[in-house]
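Duplicate of earlier report; Peptidase M20 domain-containing protein 2 input re-posted below.
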Amino acid sequence: MQAEIEAFRDQAIDLSHRIHGMPELGFAEFNSSREVANELRAAGFTVTERAFGLDTAISAVAGAGSFKAIVVAEYDALPELGHACGHNLIAACAVAAAVGLKGVAEQLDLTVEVLGTPAEETGGGKILMLEQGAFIGADMAMMIHPAPFEDASPGFLASTGFSFEFSGKSSHAAASPWEAANAADASTIAQVAVGLLRQQLPNDTRVHGVVTNAGSAANVIPGRSAGVYGIRAQTLADLEDMVPRVEACFTGAALAAGCTVELEWELTYPNVVQSPRLASLYQQNAEALGRSFPQDPEARAFRASTDFGAVSQVVPSLHPHVKICDSPVSNHQSAFTEAAASERADHALIEGAIAMAWTVVDAALSRIDSADDRGR
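Output:
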């Protein structure tokens, strides 16, 4: 199996670089998803494009065994930054691991399915796919994410977000300012209120956002302002407690500025429930390839969110980090975009694919009990 993945090295790296060179936003990954589908089809997988009702979702299946392992691919990019989260590597790593697993599927009584999942950054593609029946019947699900450190079982926060729009009344800033209801002021008040709220938040709770529009001329008091905000917390229960507190910052700001406000909420991403047993297997396999897992304070402090959390609530799951660069370079930075197409990243891609494939094999051999293996 390792030999098959090593033989696929050049194709996997080329796939990673092709996706990296054509960054596409969530639900618009038409070229990237096609590239992944074509590679899997050429490798002998039965491929379904536009799977589960999404134009850029993929299902690719090999084997017909009783143990079903799902390997997850992502390929969406970030606005302006491109692949600053390294989803090109996630996709190529999933394909390479699956190619290796296909050769042992019959021997292991294994079904391996690659799911190409759109819109992880925003849009919750995996959540939408779950609603349409994806991941059902799986004994395990796994993906590998690039980062500036190795971590077999990183923590991921529950998250949600919303767009906001304050509506007031425009007026001439000099001739008749008293006629206005300043929507830009409402955005400012909301930002200040959130900033003050942060003093009372638990350590793992995050509130962050941007104003995307608050007027365009200095001599016009704006009657409209808009933006987007995100909220993250340790668990779904913690997140539910936070939502009304943050919402009050915006309704109160509207009242203070004489405006109205509309909030449009996004899908909620649950926290990731990592399988301790899968994490142990993966770390052993990665260490066998020469990768190390030091006690890294930065790794322990790193917090993000992913729609893979929804998968982990229903299927024994693992979402480890593989190191492709060194701090202070980190995800969602332009320097990470460069790192995601580096020789070091290419090396991590292949070793990550081998470690993931070995972990699937170990899980298939030990027949992990899905009822007891979610670490709850």
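The radius of gyration is 23 Å.

Merging into the original ticket.
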